[in-house]
Amino acid sequence: MKGRGIVIRQPTVVATDKYSGQIIAIGNSAKEMHGRTPENIETTWPLKDGVIADFTATKKMLRYFVEKACQNYLFNKPRIVIGVPLGVTEVEESAVEEAALEAGAREVFLIEEPMAAAIGAGLKISEASGSMIVDIGGGTTEIAVISMGGIIASRSIRVAGDEITESIIEYIKREYNVLIGKITAENIKHKIGTAYPSMTIEEMDIKGRSLQNGLPEIITISSAQIEGAMKDVLLQIIGAIKQTLEITPTELASDLMLNGITICGGTALIKNIDRLIAMETGLPVNIAKNPTECVVTGASKVLEDIHGLKKLLKSSKQGR
Predict the structure, then answer these.
(1) What structural domains does the chain harbor?
(2) pTM score > 0.85 for this model?
(3) For 106-117, how does the pLDDT look when each residue is reduced to its tens digit (9 = 90+)?
(4) Which long-range contacts (CB under 8 A, 24 or more apart) does 301-310 make?
């Protein structure tokens, strides 16, 4: 919110009663319930791969966040900017707009996430010089080369942090015959995950359920193992970066030798991911300051100067 910055930072998780359809919890409280609820309550992520998977849950979740953020502005409907992945379909785009309008927005603007990320990362997007942003979020990886306020070359793949988490779950199931949950796998990724071999091997004890006898089990895993578990997914992301570089005009490609690649998103926090991308592409790689906040910071800057930066928006829609 203008003048206050980020007022809510919560995961897009919803806990629902399967039988009545009633929403029990949203955000942090719903995430804390994951894997700990009785049979009638399930926790779900209503956004998948950066788009809406469950319209009803998304609408209720957005309304909850809007009301929580705008407690003192209940009679003044907010204007909302939402980041969407590159290449979303018209149907997906309309679903996002409708969900936000039904959640209480007076006006909804959509911006492509790599453009918002580039603005939030402080890249000089208006200059006649190429800048590359790689936003590795939860559901998608968004890659764009930007010059003179426009996206010149881009690639969007639905492979990102969630797939890395899943690869850790699958590795532990395959190697140890132990099942762990999504939250545990995310903790492993953040605490000892490394994208490139490190001089120091870290270890971590984790709890799971044996698939042999169904009993709780504690195993010890190392950062070297997690590097191996994540490698295939990270190479898919790097492959998409290389494909984007291949279609980048020569003049802008030469700019990237100087300006390098800027990475952001939650996955940018994985240790040594900048080293791996630099080694594979031969370009300098920078991790944006506050990488998890780049998209929301960029969206907020657009919101504060909606008329001056309107040309950067993908679409807009007003409420009735």
Answers:
(1) 14-113+296-318 (3.30.420.40), 115-159+234-293 (3.30.420.40), 161-229 (3.90.640.10)
(2) yes
(3) 899 999 999 999
(4) 301/119, 301/120, 302/81, 302/109, 302/111, 302/116, 302/119, 303/2, 303/79, 303/81, 303/109, 304/2, 306/79, 306/109
